[in-house]
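Batch manifest, entry 17 of 40.
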Amino acid sequence: MRMTVGVLIVLAVMPIAAYAQLSSAEYTINTGEMVLDFDVRYDLGTVMYDRIQITDGTDTIILGISDVISERGDSIRLNMDSLKAALVNNMSSPILKMDEGAVRFGGAHSAVQSVPIIGKVQVGVVIPDTYQASRHMVELSTEHFNHILERSDASWRLEVVFNDNERQTVSLLELEQSDIDVVIGNESLLAKSRIAQPGMIVMACCDASTDYDIVRGDPLFFSLVPSNNDALDATLAMMNDVGINRILPVYPANDRAILDRINYQAQVAVADGIQYGFSDSSEQIVSSVADAIASDLVMLPGVRLGVLLTSAHDTPRILEAAYQDRSLTTVRWFGLETHDGILDSSKAKFFAQEVGYMVPYIGVLENPLTVSLDSYMYGELGYAPNKTAFGAYDAVQILGLSILGDADIYNSDIDKFADLNVEANDVAGVISGISSEFGGYTTYVGLAEDGGLEAPVYQIQSVRGDAWVRTAMYNNPVDTKVGTISFGDAILPYIQYVAGEPLIDDVVQVGLLVHEYDAYEAGLAARMGLALLDGEYSLVVEDVTNNDIQDGMRLFSDVGIPIVVVHAPESSTLEASVHAQNHNTLIIGTASTGVQSAIQNDNTFRMLPSDMWQARALAGMMAHDNIRGVVAIYPDQTQAQSLLEGVADVFAGEIDMTHSYTDISNVMRNVTLSAIEMTERYGHEGTAILALGDGDDVGYLMDNALGTAGRINWYGSLRVAGSPSISDMTTGSINLAALSPTISGGGHAQLILDSLYLMQPPAYTNSLFEAARVAGMAMTQSDSNADIARALLPSIADDSNLMYDDISFDENGDLASYTYDIWRIDDAWIRDSIYDVMTGYASHIPIGVMVPLTGHDAQRGIQQMWGAHLALSAQNEILEQEGAPWRLSQRVVDTASSPIVSLGAARDLYNMNIQAALGPPDTVSVNEIGRFGSYSDFMLISCCSDAPDVYNSYVVYLGSTDVHKSQTILRMLGDDGISNLLVIHDGSSTILNSLASDFSGHLNVQEYDAIDAHSRVVADADDTLSGMLNLYDRSSVGVLLLADHTDTASILGEALYQNNLQYANWYGVSTDGVLPDILYNPDAVATATNTNFAVAVPAIPKDVDELKAILRMVIGFTPSSDAYLMHDAATLLSTTIIQLNGDSTAPAVAEIMPLLAADLAGITGPLALENNQRLTLSHDIWRIVDGKWQLQKTIP
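Output type: structure tokens
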């Protein structure tokens, strides 16, 4: 037998790591450097670079050891040579891929994995350390810019690189060596760059003025800082506005040029002026001014003389000296910039007020974003930022958008890094256009072709009390409310600015008296309230914490402010009220008032209910929790004692009222002993501590609660709820509940709270927010007349609710509300229930509202949010009348017009135990959420999407589907005899499939990409239409445009210059109203008129004038069908939950909603659903006639 002997070789198989290790790949586009980050450390020396590649599926780059800069265990730094970098830049959505075994982790081979490559464009920052606020603004603006890019799933980010070399010229050269082509800096950087000539873009910000000759001398220089002449222009316009017809300049001898500038720019007579030397005393200067004034007033009858002080540095001493001479008060005085030295001198300050001294100040505008920026910086720096710093925020935004090449950051879906503007000349070529189209967040920032501000905005400021106060505006821009924007995680109303006229506009001044609170934080909340009003308002803040309240109130009377918001405890408010009653001034207080302090028909109103109701709510809240024994802790103050007595009058259990305090550090020991005694009678669950101090006091007490006091429930008054001094770390295991007047259950109140919480105010700050808004409206509508305002104030309040659902006053001037939100502390303050003094305890049942508050669909989202709110408010009124033990509220989440964000929002709501939600309006998002809901028990009612006909029991569609829209289009075409159709579409519309199957005529289809120039699109369409016009009867040829509203306006505008396209009827379809963008484009209007452009829009219901007026008032523009469809969607969902007696779980809602809908009629018509859970909607057909949209007909 033959035997074969072999050798068995056993190969050791290396294990493969079973978890992901590569976390990200970031590629710096301007340098070619790439960083690979790992979430665990890899084994140094094990990287096999030939197993790492960059690819887009078409082109591939294999890495090599020559590409490596360094290995650090948790990262790898690479540098692409110019050829590889060029290839990466031209890849479509490149990814970095690691093959199996490319690197080892603890001896194990890595698995195959890949990550998308995120590109970064670097922008240099050369701002000195002394400009701390500006540097923080740059960082925050970059963070916010990238936040939007990330939520939009963009493939690139902005990165700022600070260079802090003491010599700015060296900083520029070092940044240039790092291949950075764009730099932000302060004004002096322009001159340094002119010397160094690095060939970089320099964007100047963060100063009061600059030399425009330098800016104009280089096409790469840009400045968000006004020129040296702009402040003088503002001052001269201001003087002209008050009737000055002769100017007396007072200027230092070393600035003779200022007199030449005044003579050149002034349009009225200019005196020779008073020139003074370094050695001249203030008294000598003032004596010369007095002589000149006396001479001019005698020699020039009818002259209205204005004194112009050109040196801000010398102004305080000149005004102080002028205080001694009463003859100098016969003329008006002006300056070129503010100087706080005036406020430091009581004489200079008094004289400045007496002569109406006015100066221009760089024009940061009061809007929700600037107030939030102010708040953020105040928290970061510990002091109020200089307003010149705000320009840094806009500088980052302008440069980021210029790198993108589009003023709309949401158009960031580029797939090639090469499409970004990175080199200096490319960025410079678009900055001016981008800046004007962007408009600015903090002020109007449109840049002229020469690189300077097109229309620099100035506040006109005067001295009021101890502060500079805005009294007018120069170059006040025109503003339009256009939806909302993202401020990090907060959502703020967005105001779009365009250049205004160089006129002086009056600014309405609202007074705020603050006592025992942080005046700046109080001012921020009040300013936010005013910023949401139409018009220009200025807050005059008087902090009397260490001063006499009567003197503070006297200031407002002296400067003609008849309505004052008083943010102070009750005792201080009463003192202010005495002055108000004696001096015909109105007060809107933010403190609740004890019964003994309420006086009918006086001049004091309060944006909080009487303590009588708060006492009943506290007692009722504790009774609901089965508390029978209470140990009270309260400050030794009249209001706290009165409130506690009110609680004792209605509480059925026992209250120990012996623990008042003046020194809080010594009170807890005795409280603990009393708590032990009380628990012996009622047990731990039946015993509680009632703390009636403010948030700081209660936070301190809880932090020092030991033993029994730390194991029983605590309750707090409205001075506690929402306090930033109290957190889960402070309370530990203590259960704390506090109350505050009920805020609106609508999403708008939630958004306001989110933005106010940037300041971390307690819940009672809501009353300050609303008080400021009511005061501002009353000042405007009464023309600052106290008697008229007194008569109008109740009706103004009735119509102005925003944070509160109801702002009406009772006969004593207190807020006529008897319901309180109950707040409990968990990881944060949570508003979980309601206590109604009349009807008792009610829980919250939250409904999710997923709408796009940012992104392309923001205008749709804001009106959908309000449509839902108004519907739910109506249902809550019914629930309240019926005494139901629960109320409905909204939990709004921003979907950012992104399917990825929408799906994340649905998961967030589900994790909050919310299983039923409204929105969003886009089809892709609805489909994503529908799939999630089908396996997670999540119910979605989409009011406005055009999703395809795919049945899903957990999705209900109240909107126009593709089939409905297609049928409407066919009706339009049939009515006009169109049998030959050219369709131009952007590839995103799904209507075409339905249309193609049902259209019996000849169809030509032209698709274009987002990157295609619209001039090219219409040129191609014109060629196609030329052939169709030759083949078919002209009256039978039409053009259907399926694109978003922005593209539609642009394509119509370009079509004006194509002859053939003007000879066919055009058609379109819209889900978000009648395409307002077209009206802003004259060429588009011309094409729409020439071609009888007809747009099909989901029909707006008839007979909804009242609802339409309310929506128009709160959202700032005319609502589309979205608002009404969301109103119906919210009504359908809430009716279903009511029918289920408060059950909002997805299975229960999904089961009975179709049955209820069959018998329910909404404002848009019957809500009976088809088999696929959709409505059949009518469509309105609109055309432009005489430059305006007009309704032509309705197609059922």
